[in-house]
Design a protein that fits this description.
A hairpin with a 4-residue loop joins strand 10 and strand 11. It is built from 10 helices and 16 strands. The protein is elongated. 44% of the residues are buried. The longest helix has 19 residues. It is α+β, with helices and mostly antiparallel strands. It has one domain: ATPase, nucleotide binding domain (Nucleotidyltransferase, domain 5), CATH 3.30.420.40. The C terminus is likely disordered. It is 28% helix and 20% strand. The two termini are 25 Å apart.
Length: 323
């Protein structure tokens, strides 16, 4: 029997965790980890070098293939997760224009205050599901534009960590709805970038990549990426989801999970069911929280997030599971 595999990278704050999952046996075939540093040298600031992510992705991929002894042609798809709320500016060739300001960075407090004044805290909460904070991408990009205007002018796209990783393999600029929802740029109900809000922030909407559902095959492994990673040219690359969504969903492979193989083989197609999962999510919150999307609602919230986080992408009514 020919086994099929899924390769997943999780770009965390401390390093890249990579796993090779045997779809045929419903089991982990191999896993590995490679750490990288975070620069906390300035008070309130936290940055990472995308070159470290790239090295970790190439090395972890080759290590998994070598350790498992599998034929990389049997890897059905590669997907990514990663820490969210970052701000990495790249040029037209995808070259980083500096380090990535990551989620833990708090330097953009003045910009967050401006957003609250210019866009309205409640307005943004109802549209994005997020409370304004310097943690999110929008104030960080505003900070970059204010302090490094020439760098901002050179930028072609603003990417999240996992989106840069997916670009390295596919050459495609893209994000998914979960990472988009943690930027303060994304309307949850319309599933699109908010042009009026972005204009009020003084930013350029064309810097934002296309946002897709997390199961979308955004592209395929390029010849250059194949040479660097050991993967096969043409292997599908899936947008996947930000770490916060993956963690909160509590999804784990069931011992009795039944898997089907990936049928998508070209960009823009949604990934068909890779597997069915059992869930370990917490019970729905019993608290009568008013939904930020439909303000008239007052019945108990049915989402699977903690009451303090806001609905965001974790609301199981706005975002029903697609697996």
């Amino acid at each position: 029997m020919t086994h099929q595999y899924l390769l997943a990278h999780d770009l965390g704050t401390t390093g890249n965790k990579a796993t090779l999952f045997d779809v045929t046996e419903s089991a982990v075939k191999a896993s590995t980890f490679q750490g990288y540093p975070t620069d906390y040298s300035q008070p309130g600031q936290a940055e990472q070098d995308p070159a470290d992510w790239q090295a970790a992705i190439w090395q972890c991929t080759r290590r998994l293939i070598d350790q498992s002894g599998i034929d990389p042609a049997h890897i059905a798809a590669v997907s990514f997760s990663g820490h969210m709320q970052g701000a990495l500016l790249v040029d037209r060739q995808g070259k980083p224009l500096g380090k990535c300001i990551i989620w833990a960075d708090q330097r953009a407090t003045a910009q967050a205050d401006f957003i609250a004044s210019a866009c309205g805290s409640e307005n943004l909460y109802r549209r994005t599901g997020q409370r304004i904070s310097p943690t999110y991408t929008a104030p960080k990009v505003m900070w970059i534009k204010e302090h490094y205007p020439e760098l901002y002018k050179q930028a072609h796209k603003i990417l999240q960590p996992k989106d840069y990783a997916a670009f390295l393999l596919s050459g495609v600029f893209a994000t998914d709805h979960s990472d988009a929802s943690s930027t303060l740029f994304f309307d949850l109900t319309e599933r699109r970038w908010m042009s009026d809000v972005i204009q009020a922030m003084g930013l350029d909407i064309t810097l934002l990549p296309e946002a897709y559902p997390s199961t979308t095959v955004i592209g395929h492994v390029t010849k250059e990426a194949a040479a660097a990673s050991g993967l096969v040219t043409g292997t599908p690359v899936v947008s996947a989801a930000g770490m916060g969504l993956v963690r909160r969903s509590g999804l784990v492979p069931s011992e009795r999970a039944r898997h089907t193989l990936i049928s998508a083989r070209r960009p823009g197609l949604r990934l068909q069911a890779v597997s069915r999962f059992s869930t370990r999510s917490s019970a729905p919150s019993p608290l009568p929280i008013s939904c930020p999307i439909t303000a008239s609602r007052s019945e108990p919230c049915k989402r699977r997030a903690e009451p303090t986080t806001g609905c965001s992408v974790f609301c199981t009514e706005m975002n029903p599971p697609r697996y």
